[in-house]
Structures are given as structure tokens and as C-alpha cells.
Amino acid sequence: MSNLCPRWNYLSNHLSDVDGRIILIWQHPMQVQIVNQSRQSITCLLSLPNQEAFYFTSVYASNETADRVDLWAELLLLHATLDLDNNKWMIGGDFNQIIYPYEHSSDSIYAPDINMYHMRDCLLQAGLFDLRFNGPIHTWTNNQPESPIAKKLDRLLVNSAFLSTFSHAYASFLPQLFSDHTPCLIDLAFSLPKAETHPFKFQNYLTKHPNFSELILDAWVLARSMSCNLKHFFWKLKIIKNDLKRLNKR
């Protein structure tokens, strides 16, 4: 790594996994203090000049269902140990799991399964939700033109404490390069929308969609931790708006 990225700092989870599934690379003036590592995640305290420090967890979840269940338990333990209801937390990476049927490109996936519910329950208990983003809904493809499959396996999640400080933060999922996953670029303070930005318009016909009620309920419940005041209520509506936009495109 020193030869590939001279004058950069890095750390990995080689102590927890012989293959070192996760590598974090950063440069001055960012300061990184490792807090916890495992086979599927690294958690650090990140400090930037003139900004409040926040916790960041990088995730590379296993392909095995049982291992991912261990990851959900690990994240909930971090949530309790680091008092992450009151401290800023960002978590991102490859979760190897979708949480809604529409996050799978196949029409055969039309109902939530137990694995989706396990991850949803983890996010709900930890007070985590998707940071607003642009780019493709599906972040992974199997690169097989004869039988293509695409899923949303990669996410950038935050809690309400993070959003209270970095209220203009934004994630962009970019086109695939050499990987079968899309890279994610995070802007902690993006420009405010321009005056000509088109407002959201609710389409009444969406209420007749067979998945409408389930989608609204799932989004509302998942965002429960943000409902304590009007500002957080606004972000709750933003999450539902994004889901409705995706439903409108189906």
C-alpha cells in the first residue's frame, strides 16, 4: 500500500480476517482513530478541520446469511456501546443484502423475505436510514448479458444526529468502473437546490399500486427515529418521497 499510495495513510482489518476484506485510505488533514474491527466491518472516529468528529463504519458483509446475522448483531452492539443515539454515525459499504423487493431486478422477487426483515430490523433499532442520494437504484450487477441480475447491495446510511450536523450531505452512486459494484462518492455539504428545481408532485394513481401501502408503512417505520420534531419529520417525508419517486418509475 505504501508503494501504491505514497504519503497516504491506511489501515485494514487483517487482524480480524486473513484476507483483509476492508482497507481504509486517507490523507492529511483527516484524522482517523480506529474504534473496532471485525471480519465484516471497521469502525473509526473521523475528524476533519473545523467540523465535528463522527463515527464511520465501513462494511463488507459476507455472502453467507448466518454471517450477516452476526453483522447485524455487531452493529447493534456498536450502537449501544458508543451511544450512537446521541453521537453522529455514518455507515457504508457492501451489505450483500437488499431490504425491499424492488431493489432486485427480477420480477420473481415480489415479497420481503426473512433476510430482508433481519436487516430492516437492525436499521430500525440502530436508528439508521439511507442518506439521500442520486444515481442508479441497483448498485451491483452480475455482468452476465445473457441472464442479467442487478441488486442494491451497497448503501450509505446515517443517523439523525449525523444529519443534524451535516444537513446538506449527499451521496452519489457513480457508473461502474472495473468492479461489479458502483462506487459511492459522499459530499458532506453539497450546494443547495437551484430555484428552477422542480418540486415533488404526488401522483394520485400511485395509491392504486398494489405495493403502495406496504411501501409507505415500511418507509415510515424505518424512519421512526427521526420523528421527534418538525425538522426530523421533514426528513421522514423526504425518505418516503424518494420511495414514491422510485415506485412511479416502475
Describe it for me?
GO terms for molecular function: catalytic activity. This is Endonuclease/exonuclease/phosphatase domain-containing protein. Pfam families: Exo_endo_phos (PF03372). By secondary structure, the protein is α+β, with helices and mostly antiparallel strands. The chain has two domains: 9-192, Deoxyribonuclease I, Chain A, CATH 3.60.10; 200-250, no CATH class. Helix content is 27%, strand content 22%. It has five helices and 13 strands. The protein has helices at 65-81, 114-126, 160-165, 212-222, 230-249; strands at residues 9-12, 23-26, 31-37, 41-47, 54-60, 89-94, 129-130, 133-134, 140-141, 150-151, 154-158, 170-173, 184-187. Strands 3-4-5-6-11-7 form a six-stranded mixed β-sheet. A hairpin with an 8-residue loop joins strand 9 (140-141) and strand 10 (150-151). It is globular. It starts with 8 loop residues before the first strand and ends with a helix.
